[in-house]
Amino acid sequence: MRFEEMRSPQLRQVDRERTMVVLPIAACEQHGPHCPTGTDTILCRSIAEAVEAATPEQVLLLPTFWLGASTHHLRLGATLTAGMETYIAILEEIIEPLLDEGYRRLLILNGHGGNVDPLKAALRNLQLRNPDALLAGQSYWSMAASQIAEIMEGNEKTVGHACEAETSLMLYLRPDLVDSAACEDNGEPVADMIEGAFVCRDMFQRTRNGATGRADLATARKGEAMFHAIVERVGIVVKRLLAEPLPE
User: Would you say the pTM of this structure is higher than 0.85?
Assistant: First the structure.
């Protein structure tokens, strides 16, 4: 079920307790010299649509929210963003009316690293006001971490930024938007964790061209394998959340 394609009488018939509402969130920001600014949105939307297509009777897919918390990319240009507090408020305001309508299960499917902290803050705030709802959220790469790692060739075994993983996924889903000639070894980013402590650095301080990892190793074949593995894993998470008892 896709929210934007349904009429209000149809939506009124949706089972509020046995349906998983899925909100994909992403970003529109610079992705190095070789990937488009909409990379996160294209990937997250494609994954979410494939998950909905596999379980259309139990998943209510909301339109993908393309704006992200991306202030850490601003110095590299080509970036649209909302501030952290604004982003938290926006997520709450998107979700709250659905909870007011009686939906009891919701998953925020994230496709941008900068959204992780505001996602959790928004869910914390919403849960205080809606203790009888099952509210969850996670990045797609975290749900499929081991599967992604098995496919990667470079030293970086997770989804970075315009990296081997994201570039491979884009080469599979939208190769027309990738400048393959500009794909190169961008190396590992300057660390944002030192001895377990988070060090706050923006992307301008972490990378030389706004990208990380081995984009030069990216292939459409890897992207295809990665895409299907991610969709399978996210689908498993959705089914597990649908089986979880609702909070009292």
Answer: yes
